[in-house]
Design goal:
Oligomer: single chain
CATH class of the domain at 45-172: Alpha Beta
Number of helices: 1
Helix content: 25-40%
Structural class: alpha+beta
Order of helices and strands: HEEEEEEEEEE
Number of strands: 10
Radius of gyration: 30 Å
CATH architecture of the domain at 45-172: 3-Layer(bab) Sandwich
Shape: elongated
CATH topology of the domain at 45-172: minor pseudopilin epsh fold
Largest sheet: 5 strands, antiparallel
Length: 197
């Protein structure tokens, strides 16, 4: 005798999620978000701090090139590209008879300023205009005091290069106390012209 099929014990409608399945899914998603979100938040801080470090490196290269005394040196800011570039005054390699032209220093990388950072530059305490600008060394071997302020969401730093200094100093208002550098002194005027240094 053939068996008759048993009626299904589950309801005829579509089966939904149980409350336990929903709670477990919410817990897994919140755990993953708790692990990922702090890492994503640190990316912006690292990018802004890296920009400050790159601007300091560019000012150090500017100072080094100026100390070589092989021509004039300039920092150029392009507001359309949001970049700082180191330029050198050199003879045109394509046309040596032509006067000297400004050329990008191929050994110093171009520094891109993220849109999250506002850049203000000062030459001997005077604010440079909004838009494109250039800071030049003088042919007599002197250069202005350069200050570049970088204000972002997590970084508020000033990179300074004094006229007599070979290395820039960085003051970051959010992360550390300002570093105090010694003032320049004239050893001859101080009576220490014969002292070794």
């Amino acid at each position: 005798m053939p068996r008759e099929p048993k009626p299904h014990s589950c309801p005829s409608g579509p089966r939904g999620f149980t409350i336990i399945e929903v709670v477990i899914a919410v817990l897994v998603i919140s755990l993953m978000a708790g692990l990922i979100i702090p890492r994503l938040g640190g990316v912006g801080k690292r990018a802004e701090q890296l920009t400050v470090d790159r601007v300091a490196d560019l000012l150090a290269a500017f100072s080094y090139r100026d100390s070589l005394a092989s021509g004039s040196t300039a920092l150029e800011y392009s507001s359309s590209e949001g970049s700082l570039t180191l330029l050198l005054l050199r003879r045109n390699p394509d046309n040596p008879a032509e006067t000297e032209v400004w050329m990008r220093d191929t050994l110093a990388p171009v520094v891109r300023i993220p849109e999250s950072i506002i850049l203000n530059a000062y030459e001997d305490g005077a604010l440079m205009p909004n838009g494109d600008w250039s800071l030049l060394t003088n042919l007599d071997g002197t250069r202005p005091k350069i200050e570049i302020e970088l204000a972002g969401s997590v970084v508020n730093a000033t990179v300074m290069l004094d006229p007599w200094s070979q290395t820039p100093s960085v003051v970051d208002e959010y992360n550390e106390a300002p570093r105090v550098l010694p003032d320049a002194i004239d050893l001859d005027a101080a009576g220490q012209e014969r002292d070794p240094w």
